[in-house]
Write a structure and sequence with these properties.
Elements lengths: L2 H29 L2 H5 L2 H18 L6 H16 L5 H15 L7 H22 L4 H21 L1 H8 L4 E4 L7 H11 L4 H8 L3 H15 L4 H10 E4 L1
Helix pairs in contact: 1-3, 4-5, 4-6, 6-7, 9-11, 10-11
């Protein structure tokens, strides 16, 4: 499991544990009944959440509990109070955890669209179930949509790059290239000519040419043009 995902699990476990202490203390001060304070629904829910988050921090198969927990909690908060910020905050945390868990590494566009539709459906449900006037109930949905549109226009270029499907990686080591072959190939991909590569590595130009020829053969290409075409299709890594 990625260390950053383990760290978030531990962090949120601590946050929920502190929330349990605050909720228990508040309920006890109000009622002077310790058993009631300990068994308060909010305390039990936060206790269960803390336990799940702690498990997700150390059990790789349960790492998805982190985003699921927040995304499942968001509708409850949004529907209960359509004008509150807690539900939207839970939703944002859930999406960020999905990102950290690698959910958006493949098929980004449909997955981001699915997450957006989920939020829109929750907002509409909150508006329908709310006792407030339709204008008041739909206001959060309008502002969220307007904010998303604003972000699109502001960061359109970056978002287009982000939503582009990442290239599959091609490992030079796995293809059997030697240290010199890998170094020369990576230099060629960066646009350097054989003479420049020879100067950089302090070897004869013929050495670079012969080494690249062997590397091209192992990669199944004939020349630098073939290598360039390969680099267009794959992310070539050492």
């Amino acid at each position: 499991m990625p260390n950053k995902l383990r760290a978030t699990g531990i962090l949120f476990t601590i946050v929920f544990a502190l929330g349990i202490l605050v909720a228990t203390g508040t309920a006890y001060l109000r009622t002077r009944d310790l058993m009631f304070a300990i068994s308060h629904p909010y305390v039990l829910i936060m206790g269960a959440s803390a336990a799940l988050l702690l498990l997700s921090a150390y059990v790789d198969r349960l790492r998805w509990l982190q985003p699921i927990l927040f995304l499942a909690t968001a509708p409850l908060s949004i529907i209960t109070d359509s004008r509150g910020i807690y539900g939207l905050g839970f939703f944002i945390v859930g999406v960020l955890l999905l990102e950290r868990a690698g959910f958006f590494l493949k098929h980004r566009t449909p997955k981001v669209a699915l997450v957006g539709v989920y939020l829109l459906a929750v907002e509409i449900a909150a508006a329908v179930l709310s006792k407030a006037s339709p204008v008041t109930a739909l206001a959060p949905t309008f502002f969220i949509a307007a904010f998303a549109l604003f972000l699109w226009f502001l960061y359109k270029d970056r978002l287009v790059v982000y939503f582009a499907e990442p290239k599959a990686k091609l490992s030079l080591t796995e293809k059997g290239l030697s240290n010199a072959e890998r170094a020369y190939v990576l230099s060629a991909i960066r646009g350097k000519q054989q003479k420049e590569v020879a100067i950089d590595f302090e070897v004869a130009e013929s050495t670079v040419r012969n080494t690249l020829a062997r590397a091209y053969h192992k990669l199944g290409v004939e020349d630098k043009s073939g290598l360039a075409a390969l680099a267009e299709k794959y992310e070539i890594v050492e």
